[in-house]
Specification:
Elements (H helix, E strand, L loop, with lengths): L2 H18 L4 H20 L4 H13 L3 H9 L4 H7 L12 H21 L8 H5 L1 H16 L4 H20 L7 H17 L1 H4 L7 H36 L4 H29 L1 H33 L7 H23 L9 H31 L3 H29 L4 H24 L1 H4 L4
Length: 449
């Protein structure tokens, strides 16, 4: 086993302990330091790196219930036998449900109060749209900070991005309903989501493995949120049918009052489900990746062939360019999620080849979109939307090119998948910086129009 493989296993253990225990971040770090000491001592005594890791995990499992559960959930691996031998059943002190419900209710009430303060139900202010992320995501950050038992100093660090964002979006003199305000409304939640990485990782942002954990969490959170939204849609539909005899307005009023606050609370509930129902999602993630990656690869390849063969890329209009941007972001998310669900030590397989096809086709399409976009800018000039779209496509182009190159190296030259993972996790701040630039820089550049 290579050093990087052992580091990946240590990161996996650390992520599990941090996610599933009530230990504070500094306590997790202390446990990890103890684990590393054990590994070093065992290697000095003559054990191979993998043997040292397994024995060290066994010793950790004898003193820490969560470590023992980590081994229990990773059935099929050797350390399961090592750790479970003679171990008592794991006990859990808390799964965080009460805390999650408290933060979810706080987010829901925050949205409700903000709507009432801005004149709901008579009117819906654009201020609400611009501040939507600030009304919800701080509560999710608070939930993570509470679950990771961050010290006060890290709570303050976690709060800084939200305070700065609140200042920027509320002090700028936006034209109501203007392009820059809508761009800020669309990009601010992205910026704040990246800010969540700090409390989620317990402040350990320098760790490539912890950043990959955050990528994995994001994908799993999205799955749970969609499931909750579908369930909520069914509930609202049945509620409308049941209340129909009382008048159509009754059901509509209830939906108007309940849905926005419910959607806000579901953000925290979905995060709690990811944290507490990890085993279910771990089973779903590889399946979803295997189903949708080939489908998207086929769709991308077909689109690239048709557009190249027909040469109709000059006919891209604004809506089609927007649709391509959304598609490229989805492909990037799918590739990232697939990478996060991949076993680091597994050899190249057919799914890796399909992902390379998808990335290469996305790269071709992104080049077409960029060419069409530059032509429109040359003809019509810059606008806030065109500037934001151009920047996003350039950021995507660099990311896709790097991912395609490293994927090809992984498949053909036997280079480790670790380099591809590090490229993707190392590139995440670029996306965050670009989204922040759209929020902070573009509005004054275009006179807040």
């Amino acid at each position: 086993m290579t050093v990087s493989a052992v580091e990946a296993q240590i990161a996996e253990w650390r992520g599990f302990v941090a996610r599933d225990s009530v230990l504070a971040a500094d306590e997790v770090e202390e446990l990890e330091a103890h684990l590393r000491e054990q590994i070093a001592e065992l290697e000095a005594a003559g054990l191979a790196a993998d043997e040292a890791f397994l024995v060290a995990v066994k010793r950790m499992g004898s003193i820490d219930a969560v470590s023992r559960e980590f081994a229990r959930e990773h059935s099929g691996r050797l350390w399961k036998q090592l750790v479970l031998a003679g171990g008592a059943p794991a006990t859990r002190t808390s799964n965080g449900m009460v805390a999650a419900l408290a933060f979810a209710v706080a987010a829901a009430v925050s949205v409700l109060l903000a709507r009432l303060a801005t004149g709901f139900p008579e009117e819906e202010s654009t201020w609400l749209v611009r501040n939507a992320g600030l009304l919800v995501l701080p509560f999710l950050a608070g939930f993570f900070a509470y679950r990771r038992r961050l010290p006060a100093r890290r709570w303050l660090v976690a709060a800084v991005p939200f305070v700065l964002a609140a200042g920027v979006v509320n002090l700028y003199p936006f034209d109501a309903g203007g392009s820059t305000e809508l761009l800020v409304a669309a990009h601010l939640p992205v910026v704040l989501w990246f800010a969540l990485a700090h409390p989620y990782t317990g402040g350990d942002l320098r760790s490539h493995e912890r950043r990959m954990d955050f990528v994995r969490f994001t994908g799993e959170w999205f799955i749970y949120y969609v499931l909750l939204a579908l369930g909520g849609g069914v509930l609202m539909g049945l509620t409308s049918l049941i209340l129909e005899p009382m008048g159509a307005d009754v059901a509509e009023r209830i939906i108007e009052w309940v849905v926005p606050s419910g959607a806000a609370g579901a953000v925290v509930v979905a995060a709690w489900l990811v944290e507490s129902k990890q085993r279910v999602v771990e089973n779903m993630a590889p399946v979803l990746t295997m189903v949708f990656t080939p489908l998207f690869a086929v769709m991308l390849a077909g689109a690239a062939i048709v557009y190249v063969a027909t040469g109709i890329m000059g006919d891209f209009d604004r809506e089609l360019l927007g649709a391509f941007d959304a598609l490229l972001v989805v492909v990037l998310g799918l590739v990232l999620y697939g990478l996060s669900a991949r076993e680091p030590a597994a050899p190249p397989g057919w799914m890796d080849r399909i992902q390379l096809v998808a990335v290469a086709c996305a790269l071709v399409l992104d080049g077409m979109v960029l060419a069409s976009m530059l032509a429109r800018i040359g003809e019509l000039g810059f606008t806030p939307n065109r500037a934001a779209a151009l920047g996003l496509n350039l950021v995507l182009l660099v990311n896709l090119a790097g991912a395609a190159w490293l994927s090809a190296r992984f498949l053909t030259a036997g280079a480790g998948v670790n380099r591809l993972e590090r490229w993707q996790t190392g590139y995440l701040p670029v996306f965050a910086v670009w989204a922040a630039a759209v929020v902070v820089v573009l509005p004054p550049l275009f006179a807040f129009a």
